[in-house]
């Protein structure tokens, strides 16, 4: 008998060190270096009858302040991150949607220094050179042939700017798997699918958990594609590990909080006779110092860069202390972001979001660290021309974020919390006066919507500044889409905010008063 151990990381988002960069001394139970210790231990201590396979499942080169620093400082080797996975002897990689955030040239450069293939069976087009090596790879270990098929969420073009995807097309992951898995069954003893995507339905029961848009197709991979022996997933940042529909499946969270482990036992005829899936928490692991030596010098520069001051703020505090209150009442920090969007986009209506409950906003003398911890996405800015009816529909989607309890307290609608937390899909608007009445049914909660003191008419057209994720319809906002874009500012919003703070040495924070929530 032979036991195959399939290790996977996913959605590391550039969090190499055990920190969220809240301060220079911040320590957190996460990070690739902790995951590396677990992976290295399993690799080095494998038994003669064991085969260890290691897969990086995407969203690797973007997200953390460390990753942002590499992307924004051309003098720094952007391939540092891939050197880490190469040194740790990964066998294959898959691209996540965030790999495309800085464009194809940066992606090619960042992924250039590796000795394992990047797999993408559902990414096609003339520009795949240097980005995708093959649809699949086949490893031969101890006379066992192990096929790994790589897939990426087909929803990438919905979020990403078109110039970051020039010449590329993204097919359904399920369609690609139906094409390739039968072929791989003829060539290999074991077929592993590594999919940077999640589940559109509960993987055990099949009950739908979200609208079927093609963003997540994991349940269909489990049930509609015969011949898969192991399924690695990601993208949703969930922590899942079990045998679903007879297929061992993992999803190891985000930022290196866990390593996915799938174990397959094969008999002498190379048939799978036992299967298991679990997550290995990295919380108690020590960071791999031998690996950190590749990046320690750059990490020190990152910490210095993060503490650079970028302006001065007076008036109402821009520090977020109560995220729920900020969503219900607005907040000076969110108003500042909208002010920047309106100034740069040349509009008087703007939209932004408090991405998660860890956002703390800015202090009186803000730093790069505070800004990136509050707005960590490299979203660019677009201006769209929307009808009053579409704006109302978008606001109804926002109003559905809240649940009013019988005692009048307000909580977050579970649809925005399960199966994946989506706090970033609630927006606050500036330039419009509006009221939500949570006593009304979902879909009928926008009871006031005015622009310049007059009710917004359904056919009235307004220009709205918004980040490109929402502008492309991300977060189930189909009323936004690329066809409505009238202007694009292809500079990341953190850079735009930084430039605004530098251009206005002293900014007075103010509490927005343009909307109310009735409970």
Describe what this molecule looks like in 3D.
The mean pLDDT is 95. The N and C termini lie far apart (63 Å). 25% of the residues lie in helices and 27% in strands. The chain has two domains: 2-303, Purple Acid Phosphatase, chain A, domain 2 (4-Layer Sandwich); 308-518, 5'-Nucleotidase, C-terminal domain (5'-nucleotidase,  domain 2, Alpha-Beta Complex), CATH 3.90.780. With 519 residues, the protein is α/β, with parallel strands linked by helices. Keywords: Hydrolase, Nucleotide-binding, Signal.
What's a quick, concise take on this entry?
The chain is of the alpha/beta class.
Mean residue pLDDT:
95
Give the second-level CATH assignment, the architecture of the largest domain: 4-Layer Sandwich
> Count the strands?
27
Give the class from helix and strand content and strand pairing. alpha/beta
Strand order of the largest sheet: 4-3-2-1-13-14
In what range is the share of β-strand residues? 25-35%
In the CATH scheme, the class of the largest domain would be: Alpha Beta
Radius of gyration: 24 Å
How many separate helices? 15
Distance between the termini: 63 Å
CATH H-level homologous superfamily name of the largest domain: Metallo-dependent phosphatases
Helix content: 25-40%
Number of domains: 2
Could you give a short account of the major beta sheet? 6 strands, mixed
The CATH topology name of the largest domain reads: Purple Acid Phosphatase, chain A, domain 2
Low-confidence stretches: none
């Amino acid at each position: 008998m032979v036991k195959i151990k399939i290790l996977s990381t996913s959605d590391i988002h550039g969090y190499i060190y055990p920190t969220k960069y809240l301060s220079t001394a911040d320590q957190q139970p996460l990070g690739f270096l902790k995951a590396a210790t677990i992976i290295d231990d399993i690799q080095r201590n494998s038994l003669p009858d064991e085969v260890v396979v290691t897969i990086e499942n995407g969203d690797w080169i973007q997200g953390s302040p460390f990753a942002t620093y590499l992307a924004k400082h051309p003098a720094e080797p952007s391939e540092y991150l891939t050197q880490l996975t190469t040194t740790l002897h990964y066998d294959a990689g898959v691209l996540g949607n965030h790999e495309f955030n800085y464009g194809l040239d940066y992606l090619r450069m960042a992924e250039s220094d590796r000795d394992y293939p990047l797999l993408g069976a559902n990414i096609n087009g003339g520009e795949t050179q240097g980005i995708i090596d093959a649809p699949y790879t086949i490893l031969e270990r101890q006379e066992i042939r192990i096929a790994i098929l790589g897939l990426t969420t087909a929803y990438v073009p919905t979020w990403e700017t078109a110039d970051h995807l020039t010449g590329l097309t993204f097919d359904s992951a399920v369609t690609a798997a139906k094409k390739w898995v039968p072929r791989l069954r003829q060539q290999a003893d074991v077929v592993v699918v590594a999919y940077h995507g999640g589940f559109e339905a509960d993987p055990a029961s099949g009950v739908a958990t979200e609208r079927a848009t093609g963003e997540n197709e994991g349940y269909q991979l489990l049930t509609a594609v015969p011949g898969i022996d192991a399924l690695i997933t990601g993208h949703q940042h969930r922590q899942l590990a079990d045998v679903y529909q007879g297929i061992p499946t993992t999803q190891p969270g985000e930022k290196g909080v866990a390593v996915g482990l799938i174990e397959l036992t094969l008999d002498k005829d190379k048939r799978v006779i036992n299967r298991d899936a679990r997550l290995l928490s990295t919380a108690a692991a020590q960071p791999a110092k031998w690996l950190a030596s590749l990046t320690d010098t750059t990490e020190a520069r990152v910490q210095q860069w993060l503490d650079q001051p970028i302006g001065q703020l007076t008036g109402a505090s821009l520090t977020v202390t109560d995220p729920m209150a900020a969503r219900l009442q607005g907040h000076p920090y969110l108003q500042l972001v909208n002010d920047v969007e309106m100034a740069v986009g040349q509009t008087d209506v703007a939209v932004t979001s408090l991405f998660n409950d860890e956002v703390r906003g800015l202090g009186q003398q803000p730093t790069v660290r505070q800004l990136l911890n509050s707005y960590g996405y490299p979203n660019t800015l677009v201006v769209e021309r929307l009808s009053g009816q579409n704006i109302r529909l978008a606001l109804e989607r926002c109003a559905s974020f809240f649940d009013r309890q019988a005692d009048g307290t307000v909580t977050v609608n579970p649809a925005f919390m399960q199966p994946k937390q989506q706090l970033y899909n609630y927006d606050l608007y500036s330039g419009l006066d509006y009221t939500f009445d949570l006593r009304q049914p979902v879909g009928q909660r926008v009871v006031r919507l005015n622009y310049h003191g007059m009710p917004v008419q359904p056919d009235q057209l307004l220009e709205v500044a918004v980040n490109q994720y929402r502008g492309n319809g991300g977060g189930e906002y189909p009323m936004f889409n690329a066809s409505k874009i009238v202007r694009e500012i292809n500079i990341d919003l953190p850079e735009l905010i930084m430039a605004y703070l530098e251009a206005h040495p002293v900014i007075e924070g103010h509490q927005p008063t343009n909307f109310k929530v009735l409970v």
